Amino acid sequence: MNHDSYSDDYINDILRSVRSIAMVGASANEVRPSYFVLKYLKLRGYEMYPVNPGLAGKTILDLPVYGSLAELPHPVDMVDIFRNSEAAAAVVDEALALPVPPKVIWMQLTVRNDAAAAKAEAAGLKVVMNRCPKIEYGRLSGEIGWAGVNSRALSSKRATRDTRGFQRLGLRE
Q: Mind listing the pLDDT tens digit for each residue in 107-144?
């Protein structure tokens, strides 16, 4: 896999198939990117599991925080890594050691660890590096265009409203 460039189909397939996401490095600080990515993905219907050993036992956005991936109550489809590139290797090792490993390892913007990616891919997992699922979801669903940003995608599909009244074009419909 060429991790310098991902096709829209590859990213779209991941975002459509994933239902549960463990976010390693989640923060309770409302100005941190991990906080608003967690909030955004939760509002889009993903089942979110914040993981942060320093906040274990507390809550973020009314979600219980876990100290490690091993503490999660059940398997997750994706592990989103909000840690630095060096720390990504240990997170991938922890994910691969789970009784039921995730289907996807996603490393956030600026996070790239080729050795960890190769290890995950050798175990049959999909890997994305140096990308943000919030940005990719917004770009592929057309939501990012609502703010005047060119998403490089055209759609004639009418945006719908979910049960909370949020307008969405939705990858998950």
A: 999 999 999 999 999 999 999 999 999 999 998 988 86
| Predicted TM-score (pTM) of this structure | 0.85
* Structure token pair of residue 2: 């060429």
Nearest to 9 by CA among 108, 128, 114, 120: 128
Kindly report the number of other CB atoms within 10 A of residue 59's CB atom.
Answer: 11
Kindly report the number of other CB atoms within 10 A of residue 88's CB atom.
26
Rounded Cα gap, residues 45 and 38, in angstroms: 11
Q: Which of 1, 27, 45 is nearest to 133 (CA)?
A: 45
Per DSSP, helices labelled H in the chain are 8-17, 33-43, 85-96, 114-122, 133-141
